[in-house]
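Input structure tokens:
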């Protein structure tokens, strides 16, 4: 059974940083693209960042230059480093592997 467990969310002030982790179990992530998505209240779930199995990166325009996605295949984990956070980054953040989703982790950016 494939499971994805996100962690690292929380409350942070504008301009602050957080690092999200997504640990996979039940299969190896090494051959697959991994993605981070987010969903704010009343809005659709949107792609934030994606990393291919070969390391090709893709970011939403709204996070370019502020967020960095990375992966550690040995740890079966993908990360999202988030810097210069803004109130509009507030959302539940989910990771995705093929058709599998994690349960999400809340990120709140507020003073």
């Amino acid at each position: 059974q494939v499971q994805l467990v996100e962690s690292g969310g929380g409350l942070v002030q504008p301009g602050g940083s957080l690092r999200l982790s997504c640990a996979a179990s039940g299969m190896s992530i090494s051959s697959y693209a991994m993605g981070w998505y987010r969903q704010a209240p009343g809005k659709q779930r949107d792609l934030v960042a994606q990393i291919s199995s070969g390391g090709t990166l893709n970011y939403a325009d709204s996070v370019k230059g502020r967020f960095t996605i990375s992966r550690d295949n040995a740890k079966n984990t993908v990360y999202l480093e988030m810097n210069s956070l803004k109130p509009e980054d507030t959302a539940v953040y989910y990771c995705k592997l093929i058709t599998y989703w994690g349960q999400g982790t809340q990120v709140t950016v507020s003073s």
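The chain is about 0% helix and 50% strand. The CA atoms of residues 72 and 78 lie 6 Å apart.
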